Amino acid sequence: MAVKDALAIDQLRGDSRAIFQAAVEAADASLAVKCSLHFGKGGGILVAGKEISPPGTLRVLAVGKAASTMARALAEIVPPSLFAGPGIVVVNDENRQDVGRFLVMASGHPLTDARGEAASREVERYISGAWPEDGLIVLVSGGGSALLPAPAEGLTLTEKTQATKLLLASGASIQEINTVRKHLSRLKGGWLAARAKPASVETLLLSDVIGDDLSSIASGPTAPDPTTYEDAREILTRRGLWEQIPASPRARIEKGLRGEVPETPKPGSKVFERVENRITGSNGLSLDAAAKKAVELGYRVEIASRGLTGEARAAASFLAHYFLEPSRKAFPSTSPVALLAGGETTVTVRGPGSGGRNQELALAFCLEKEQLGGSLTWAFLSCGTDGRDGPTDAAGAIVDSGTLERGRRLRMDPVRALGENDSYPFLAAAGDLLKTGPTGTNVADLQVFLSA
Prior knowledge:
Layout: H1 3-26, H2 29-36, E1 37-39, E2 45-47, E3 50-51, E4 58-63, H3 67-77, E5 87-92, E6 102-107, H4 114-127, E7 135-141, H5 144-147, H6 157-169, H7 174-182, H8 191-196, E8 200-206, H9 229-238, H10 247-257, E9 275-281, H11 283-296, E10 300-308, H12 312-322, E11 337-343, H13 357-372, E12 378-384, E13 396-400, H14 403-409, H15 414-419, H16 423-430, E14 433-434, E15 445-451
Parallel strand pairs: 4-5, 4-7, 5-6, 7-8, 8-9, 10-11
Antiparallel strand pairs: 1-2, 2-3, 11-15, 12-13, 12-15, 13-14
Helix pairs in contact: 1-11, 2-3, 6-7, 7-9, 9-10, 12-13, 14-16
């Protein structure tokens, strides 16, 4: 590779990081709370301009990867005299921070553990027994579903976790996974709001769900659930898992189908008469911030997708082919171009390797670009805004036209790595993993393709 091309690629890689950082900063969990929550001149609490200070007891619950950050922001705004302490924070280990006036409880993520079950019991105790004059503020961010597992009656945490693991390995979408989890839980799918009734509930959500479906963010603890036991069974059957999941979850769903256990609270239920859910940050807002940064850096921007979902490899193929479409011909060959996408893909695990959906997408993109040929001067970033891609210590990867050569020089086979879901070692060898550490937020994933 010519020195000129190498320098250009280094510039593209640096710019892609800067664009990604702008997206992460736009999803700052502290800023999200402070923009929505204020201490009014009259001494009350305002949420989106609405007075919510109850005459009775005010409780505060924060759950998700950004829970510590969101709770700290609230504590800076709301004086101690206005809510009964301590509040509760349930957060994953990587993002755990002490927060004054809050009991901070760490819980397992992405797979649940006994600490999450204990946290769920503490949350149920905290929000139960409310009076009509009481209020509850809930701060929700991505990851909340795993952090508050609360298995339904008759299920063990191990059984519920096994069902979730099978769904994850099958390539099921987050919506499909949440549909099943909501019907195996005591707090998901609107049940948290039901347990807080008759108190008023104000929920601020940092959305990691494409389209910002309230019932899907952290499995919708305070949102109506339009899905049913029938939907849960259909998903498990279609994914070939109905006979593979443990007997107790299957029995629970069957009881639901027979009407022997209640459905999750539905739209129009009286459970939600005094419940407000508000989005404070999302993938779409971060994508817009990324586009703005790319323009500032001198790129002509196109947003290829605001809802990049499905298999990571299929998403890689879509993005790699995007510039071959006739509409791309409008760009002069000398114009630097930024192609952006936001979403959350999935991976059907078929091999024993290590990696995450963003690493798999990045490696698959390299192989697609190799087949298509074209410019030597490009870089491609695919990363999770939370700083963690699957069960790894990387946020994702930044690859370029030299990635495959660097890996092959070390006798590594990218096709084999992709086939065995083993993208992490290959990208590590190529020097292309991006490790940001926990970002304190979570609004799904971002992809940045830059071409000089």
